[in-house]
Amino acid sequence: MPKNFQSLPPSEPSFWVKRHLERADIVIVGGGLVGLLTSIRLKEKFPKREVWVLDQSPFLWSASWRNAGFACYGSAGELIDEARRSSRSQALELYRRRFEGLVSLREEFGDAALGFEASGGWELFQTEAEAQSVIQTLDEWNQDLKSVSGISPFQIRSSQSLGMRIASQAIFASQEGAIQSHLLLRSVRNKALSLGVECYEGQAVSHLEPTESQSWMLELESGLSLKARELVLCTNAYTRLLQEEVDLKPARGQILVTSAMPELPFRGIFHADQGYLYARTLGTRLLLGGGRNLDFAEEETLHSEENTAIRNHLLNYLKEVLVPGQEFSIQEQWSGIMAMGESREPIVKQSAPGFYLAVRMGGMGVALSSEVAQGVSRLLS
Ligand SMILES: Cc1cc2nc3c(=O)[nH]c(=O)nc-3n(C[C@H](O)[C@H](O)[C@H](O)COP(=O)(O)OP(=O)(O)OC[C@H]3O[C@@H](n4cnc5c(N)ncnc54)[C@H](O)[C@@H]3O)c2cc1C
Predict the structure, then answer these.
(1) In this predicted structure, what is the pLDDT of residue 59?
(2) Distance, CA 129 to ligand 1 centroid (Å)?
(3) Domain containing 150 — which CATH number?
(4) Could you tell me the distance, in angstroms and rounded to a whole number, from the CA of residue 185 to the centre of ligand 1?
């Protein structure tokens, strides 16, 4: 008797499977948040077309299921970093895309369905000098962002009530909040299915090729192959396994979750170190992630192992800065893989006839996902 399914010999596809695989009009590769939202937008635009989503992994695996669940647009420190990396106008445009993306995600699915908590977000600083260097830029950012968010998004607040070992002033952004990632994914996937999108998990695409009849042939690792008139890659960090020339790099993100603490003097989401460190409350537990800037080279990987130096850095930040004097243990730990580029702009484009890319979602892909899906939908006719 075989011990599991993998030890069974592969079976030949049936007549019915082959006929089924001829039916897809639009195939989306990648069933994370971006792929699923894209499938919704395309099915709404082309209700008569067969829209399929293929994902290599079993259900519940992608970065969309492994993130920190921040509903954020970019702290002032991150905006400064982004403006340095690209330009001030690009940093402002990216903020607008994230802000409007989150607004439409919340409008489409409703706050209860996303587990949205309007907690506000804090930017924390280790030293007074670091705090002042960001605070002195706030008037200008607030002026430029008012037309996007309807208010001046950044307020200076005393950090005393937080009980952390940080600079005396912090920056509060009242419109930020937190979601529960599994609730968001469930809502999005259910909507896609209810519209008639077909989702197939456990189907890794290993090769893509244009055909003479102006469609695309996809080979799957299972040995099956299928044709699509139009093909959209929403494969984010894994894109270069299929299309080597795409300009992105994988970037691993580590996350730790503490045990419950007797009490926490704060709640909400927290950014530090230009966004490279992020924390949020989960009841009286704390989720802390990031630290990639400690070892960029090592974290440029598709592998999801622990990085001990980064784990220690996160642990130290918890003990020394966020909750000094509190007793806790680390109860959960995982990592996920993002996709980064020199610019934080996502890639949303047609790269060949019938072939589209929606990848490189950076560290705030939840916020961008909705706007990116709309962008793909505008490209297809
Ligand atoms: C640790 C961590 C914390 C984060 N925290 C936040 C946060 O708090 N807020 C926020 O806005 N963003 C956050 N992000 C970023 C956000 O999660 C991502 O930007 C977003 O989920 C990307 O969605 P996606 O659909 O593009 O990619 P993914 O969710 O990675 O989905 C891509 C899918 O493509 C599939 N795939 C790849 N190659 C193939 C192939 N050849 N064949 C078939 N399928 C394939 C993969 O299996 C995967 O399911 C975080 C990310 C990480 C890793």
Answers:
(1) 66
(2) 35
(3) 3.30.9.10
(4) 11
